[in-house]
Amino acid sequence: MEAAGSEGGRPGTFAAFASRDFRLLWGGQTISFVGDAAFVIAVGWRVTALTRSPGALGFVLAAESVAMLATLLWGGVLADRYSRRLLMISSDLARAVVVVIFFAVEVTGHVNLTAIIILSACFGAADGFFQPAFGGIVTLVVETPMLPSASSWIGIARQGSAVLGPAIAGGLYGVAGPATVWAIEACSFVISAGALWLARPRRAEPHPQLGLRRELAVGFRYVISVPWIWTGIAAATVILMFAMAPYTALLPRIVHSHYHRGVGAYALLFSLMSAGMVAGSLVWAKWHPRRNRVLICFASFGVNDLGIVVLALSPWYWVAAAAVVWRGFWIGIGISAWMTLINELVPENLLSRVLSFDYFGSFALTPVGFVIAGVAAAAVAPTTVLAVGGTIGVLCWFVPLLNRGVRLAA
To answer: What is the pTM (predicted TM-score) of this model?
Structure first.
């Protein structure tokens, strides 16, 4: 296994696995990601089957997103102040409890759209405390030269699991029903919490405790002082509303009504996109250039949205399958590049707060996007909604690159 020595003395592709704590973090999160990916597919298909409405899933996703946004910024402050490891464990266990309730509601026959919306909101609230802590713990389990390797392998775990998770959901849903998927998701959170309990990351650099609001303000001032960070977040805010939210909310309906296929075909599109993301993350892990990284990051995000346009306009499922692989490859490069830049360049004692603003800003308008997608799909074809959103995404990612300072920042 390639560990540390590679071309130019740079750490190699597998360098991060030299750290025991990274191995524990990565292994636990990989299992959790598998459960998450299966859960997303099962929820999407369960809501679609339960309501027969093209917009219902959008309302479920909006509820989850709003709840996550409500806790996200405070999660960033707490993760910079207290143990990121313990915050992650607490969030894992809280989400396990929520999914156990999902399971109980399903097996007792009391499932309905209202219950799914409420439970999804509880899930999102717990997730808001997890994400900033997770983003900030990576620098505590590997040394700085290993960050490109760590960022890429976390992306590979996330997206590789999203190949397996949808396959599990697609296979089990039709045979054993959604309750089996809920059970797998709950167990995955318990395993993740156990792996984190065994890990011993180093302590983050201490910083003065100024009160939650003032510490949040310090993080905000840092974000707006770095052009490539705030322009990237601003672009993502618009693009995720118009491109990602409709894609997520309307894809089950498009697979069912446009391609005339079932849950297996829906799950396959997720798996193929995730396979593309694994490939893109591996390319970044091997490549990890030192120049033009912001340009590569933003351009990769831009060209990925061409895949949404192709999927929306194609009458053939196999073309849609190729389009999602294209999307995944460029998203894999873009996310790996972004996380490497954030982890390398943001001061450690601000990292979780910056990541919380990243997540909050990027996803701030996705609840609006989910609702708009549901309303628009009732008036025009869902494929039209996706084609317009994908086009907006392609164009908007290149706007920040018109600024030379952003383009050449890192």
So the answer is: 0.72
